[in-house]
Amino acid sequence: MEPVCEQYLYAASRAQALRKVIAPILKRGGIVISDRSFFTSMAYQGFGRGLGLKKVLEINKEAVGDMWPDKVIFVDTKIDEALSRAKDQSGDKFESFKKDFFIKVRNGYKIVAKEYPLLVTTVNGNGTIDDVQSKIYLLVKSWIKR
Fold first, then answer.
1. pTM of the predicted model as reported, rounded to 2 decimal places
2. For residue 49, what are the domain limits?
3. CA distance 74 to 83
4. How much is the pLDDT for 89?
5. For residues 133 and 45, what is the distance between their CA atoms, to the nearest angstrom?
6. Contact 62, 112 (CB under 8 A)
7. Residue 88 has what pLDDT?
């Protein structure tokens, strides 16, 4: 699939989820924790697939509107370690990409984290999964004021 088509499909899916699932929860005072946002697209499609940050933001502008995440966690993990943790070892669409793609994605996340320092918090993802989970849990717990 062409990267620009892929990005429009992700943006459309994101627009639907934001309006039909996330917005109603937030209106009720709920908390939403998600494993993806358009920040993921900035790294994957913007850098990994070569669309560039500007194009990804342009495509997602209408899709997300003013519903940006309050916080984003970038789990920065060495590429080999991250790939070894993949659940689908035979590879889904992205897991079957070569290592150089993930190097671009990781570098993209680092750039996005620098561009949005008030939104993106980087967590060291190396070490055991339990250690990383504990770091993330404590971080999220510190953000929730309930």
1. 0.89
2. 3-143
3. 16
4. 59
5. 26
6. no
7. 65
